[in-house]
Specification:
alpha/beta, globular, 7-stranded mixed beta sheet, 276 residues, 3-stranded antiparallel beta sheet, 12 strands
Length: 276
């Protein structure tokens, strides 16, 4: 059975980052598969870590990855977008193509993933707008020099075991929040049917003062989470749908589905406007 995550060695449950331990790990082999015009990235297992439709390499193939772009409904002109966990580079490529003039930074611990993204998934070389760093995501966001350094932060941090995010402590999410410039957003890929889901939601809720929404499950368990930083937000659903239609017209991504997913996540609490 194929799961669709994106990357787990653990931090201690007391929140102490095990940076040295992560550096000593032996990475799983990077493998690929293809079917029906789509190339997939794997870390030596059947679990899909990323995908690219060969005929449309700059589009986002997987639905959960498309939902990771839902911040576009709320952050209209980002200056700096950061991706933690590169995978097949679908999000990085999409942001680079469709979010100009924003700078796009991707941080990936495994150098071989970066090489694979460029050789097999058409990730462009670095330039004045694109920077791909081989480094540790925890160290990146915890660096004081990067406080309020980005407008959007996208997290897809899974390893070959695909049990839950590699980084999930309260301290890590607090650093993520501190790295965002208000008003800004974080999007995160989780597994809704795994015990790690509630652990992550608790820590996200604490770090982001409860301003967190988990979208309904897609694929085989993926749930994308949206977290907000900045002043309280109130926006009419009709305006959100109008914004989504503009995004669809300019980028081709299914943005109206994001609004429906957000409404579904709130259920009877959705009212006439999104308030968060």
């Amino acid at each position: 059975m194929i799961k669709f995550p994106g990357r787990r060695s653990r931090e201690d449950r007391d929140g102490t980052p095990q940076v040295a331990a992560r550096r000593r790990i032996r990475y799983a082999p990077i493998t690929f598969s293809e079917g029906e015009g789509v190339r997939y990235l794997h870390f030596g297992t059947e679990w899909v870590q990323g995908a690219m439709r060969l005929a449309r390499p700059d589009e986002i193939e997987l639905e959960y990855a498309q939902q990771m772009m839902a911040w576009m409904l709320f952050v209209h002109a980002p200056r700096h977008i950061v991706q933690l966990g590169l995978g097949a580079a679908a999000l990085t490529k999409f942001c680079y193509r469709h979010c100009a003039p924003a700078r796009v930074t991707a941080v990936e611990l495994n150098e071989q993933v970066i090489i694979a993204a460029r050789a097999m998934f058409r990730l462009p070389e670095d330039d004045e707008r694109l920077e791909v760093l081989c480094g540790d995501a925890y160290e990146f966001v915890s660096n004081p020099a990067r406080r309020e350094n980005c407008d959007v932060l996208q997290l897809d941090l899974y390893d070959a075991s695909a049990r839950g995010p590699v980084l999930d402590s309260l301290q890590f999410y607090e650093h993520c929040r501190a790295s965002l410039k208000p008003p800004g957003m974080l999007t995160l890929n989780l597994f809704g049917d795994h015990p790690s889901f509630m652990h992550n939601m608790r820590n996200l809720g604490a770090a982001f003062e409860g301003r967190v929404l988990a979208l309904p499950e897609v694929h085989e368990g993926n749930r994308v989470v949206l977290a907000f930083v900045g002043p309280p937000l109130e926006v009419n659903w009709a305006l959100l749908y109008d914004r989504a239609k503009v995004i669809e017209a300019t980028s081709g991504i299914k943005a109206t589905a994001w609004v429906s997913a957000i409404k579904a996540s709130l259920g009877k609490l959705s009212g006439t406007a999104l308030r968060i």
